[in-house]
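anyone else get weird line breaks when pasting these?? whatever heres mine. first is seq + tokens for prot A
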Amino acid sequence: MNESEILADWFSKPGDSIRRLMHKRGVSVESLASNFSDGVSDVRGLLDGSLAIESESAATLAATVGGTKKFWLKRQDKYEQALDRAVSCAVSFEFEDWLDKVPDPKPARKGKSDEATTREAIRRRLKYFNVPTISSWQARYGHLLSETRFRKTDAYETVDSSILLWLRQGELEAEMVVTQPWDATKLEERLGSITKLSQISKPSRFLPKLRALCAEAGVAVVVVKTPRGCPASGATRRIASDKAMLLLSFRYLSDDQFWFTVFHEIGHLLLHGDNTYVDGEQTEEDECEREANDYAHKCIIPEDRLDEFASLPGNRKAVLRFSTSLGVSTGLVVGQMQYFKKIEPSKLNGLKRHWKWVEINSAFE
């Protein structure tokens, strides 16, 4: 067994053990968070490795998910030792690959580069992606961008590293969402209920319900604001054999864009298997994107209502009445009318809902 294989065999963050015990004992993130001073923020840090287990948190974990205080402190210590060895190996044999190929989740300030700064830069990457060697990173992420069906927006500069960091942050958030095993039939069965959620105005009310409905079908719905250079509105990715991720960015902060993205991504999950998709706006469409778009259109305007939609007058009263009869948000109908050029892009935008990030973030506090 070579050094890379040895590293891969024992490299595992304490959060992996916490998550396994949470699942085994049926402990939710919310339940665990109630035992920590910073709530969900502390649990997120423990799970993703950014927060080390110390004496107080070790005692809390022992009391809530199992093990002993000594076990958790030892688990953290062994991880730190493993991390140090992985960093030393990387610095000795593959530091150029780590620095050139793997995006830094928190870029250091520009300045003189020495061994200490190199070690810290590699450590950040190892912890964030939870892999011990460049070969293990390549196996999990190296081919992701070339294999991902990404619809790039011409109006924005697209930076591959930003896309990858956004997807990875989505994975970390999705790991905190407890789901049933992936089941396409269950997802389809819940589509009507999901569609009706578009009528709810406040993210703090519809996001938890959207997450719960999708979790019953094995889909973790997560919201992550995109970093600079990543003009994505949504993405889907199978993050485990029995769990899918539906990642949303709330790009444009409007209900027509948001809900169309939800239905588009659900279309990918149901129609296109295990491929990873990252979707933006104003892009050239291939067959898969056309299929996902058609699926989303039909979620909003069912086929038996298309004739009525085709003759729908472009006035406020008619649009309000039609959207109410469909059970969808008025903004979605306006967005469809604009997309199909039934009205000008500037018309009826007052019927769309717009949000601020503080409203979205409150849904997860």
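and prot B, same format (seq, then tokens)
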Amino acid sequence: ATTPVRRRRRSSCALGEPIRPVLNRSTRIATLLLIAFPVLLNTAEITNIVKADPALLYSGLRTTMHAGPVAGYPVIDPSIGFLHQALGKRAIDELTHGTMPWWNSLEGVGVPLAGGMNSSPFFPLMPLLELPRGQVFIQVMVQIFAGLATFALLKALRLTTLAALFGALLFETNGTITWLGGGWSYPIPCLPLLLYGIERIRSPDGRIQLRGGFWIAIAVAVSICAGFIEISFLDGLLGVAWAAVR
């Protein structure tokens, strides 16, 4: 009698074959943690236990307003109240009424609105300003997207799930988002997304390369729409250097 010979499965890590991401249990758990962590950090502001509305804290409209039972203020840059939130809300109000926010007639003799650096009317998360505590929701979403993009990048660099999770948690709570807030933080998630797209383009698989180009296009477009072009410029320089080294 002859013993049947088992056919060996080809490994997905064979030479010349791309490594495809697998959404295993640990990856799904890490993704849920990256989404839940910013929500937990901002629970007091989301539930209005801590008064975090920049329009009340920094604009001077309510001089008796305080930050809540916890001493201090949610962010260190007061311009979030009288620039980013005020101009962003004005721009979104015009968009929701079917008018392009090219010009702000309420400031002086009139100044550009969409062409400025503080309104960011075409940033995808700006419609959240129409909600109560919308600025808080924008910050939470920026943190979540920054964490998910960083996790995808670190996994593409062959880090373990645990290492990628901790790196993503650190990046989604970096000082630019948690201390400055406002428009300064809007382009932050685009940097790891840009680097992730570059890593995908390095794959020998044409379909993965195409998806990498898609993520690069999304990262560049959203970064420009975020309004702070100097941050987008610095991210682009790092992206060029990363591509050259890789």
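btw re prot B: The longest helix spans residues 134-156. Residues 9-19 have pLDDT under 50 and may be disordered.
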